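Moderator note: this is an archived Q&A kept for reference. The question asked for a predicted structure of one protein chain; the sequence and the answer are reproduced below.
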Amino acid sequence: MTVASILQSYSKKMTVVVFVAALVAVTGEVQAQTLATLLAATVENNPRLSAIRERQTSSQANVDAARGQRWPTLTVTGQEGRRHLDQRTAEETLTDRQVRLELNLDLWRSGQITAGIEKANASAAQTDAQLVQTSIDALKTVTTNWFSLQGAQQVIALQRSDIAERENFVEELNTRVERGLATVADLSAAQLAVIEQQTALQQTEEQRNQAVDTLENWTGLRPEQAIGTARLPKIPATLEAALTQAARHAAQVEIARAAVAQAEAEVAEREGALGPRLSLNAHHGYDYDQTIHENVLEERAVSREQSTGAMLELTVPLTDGGTGRAQVRASTHALAAARLHQRAAQEDTAAAVRHSWMKRAAAQQRITLLEQQLTAAKALQQSRKREFDQGLSDIQPLLDANQKRSSTEQDLIHARTTLRQSEVQLLADMGTLTPERLGLE
């Protein structure tokens, strides 16, 4: 395949792209979204967060159920029975009605009720922390891909500008070749540079589409363009301050801390099951009995009785075959495991914060170096252009300088995107990339 045929193929593709872009501009179908809009849509519509919220509501209901064990239970029962006897000498109808109101109250259960409430509260706190962790993961994914989309937009604009410049240069070389001021080899090299940049543009557009697909998956919106600026929580000035915030706010640590509290309550609940239990039972009843002898002039016998009583009941477990003690030992070892897991979570969080902090610092240093490199690359490009115009050098040094300037400018865009993404990761590791800190409900 010749260079001319390759150029013709890419020219057709670029014509289609320009036509689609013009059509979208007329119909207004391009969806441009700010980061704040996408984050709000994530919090409101993402099914992962909705599922955790349902679990959160369920955990709170379990807390209410555990607290309800402190209150007495009041029940009322009523029954009516009727029996007809057909004997040899007489017929008899018996009617029996009973109504009973009963109250039961656990006065002492060796700390089981308190432990049950603490266990339910710890479970609810763990669910709350899981909601925070899921929210952070969702917001981190959306924010990171929003920066990817924004960076891809900048690179695409740069590449399209470079393609236009290189195509103008090709036209200029055509004129020079016709006048004998340049060779066909120079023209072919310039045409190849256009094709290379078009290939790079296609790859960047694929990366942009991947970011758009991910954003649509998490937010329910398809932002074809990222507009506006990102307002993120402030990053601490020092690594020590970041580690301190992570120790207080990191969702992973909060989940492990709630698991320890839940395991402690489980131990207390198992130990309470081995202790005595004191309960109160009080009742008030009403009995109504009626007997009718139908063959004795409708003789009726009516009996009415009321009864009221109260009883204290003490239950002391003596032996259960060692089951209770075994359950206490099992819960004790589970508590030890939960404490070790909490320690590991704290160490992992600190390590993640340190890694993100160093990655952010490296990105900042890379940006500084690339800015200096870009200044030098632009100066080199201008120098090579003057040398080529004056006939002091051939076209290859100029093409190399153009490519160096373009690649350095693209690397600078990527480095700035990496810096913002590393800041997002740092905020997520610290536990501060939450809906509340982002101003979302």
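Archived answer notes: The radius of gyration is 39 Å.
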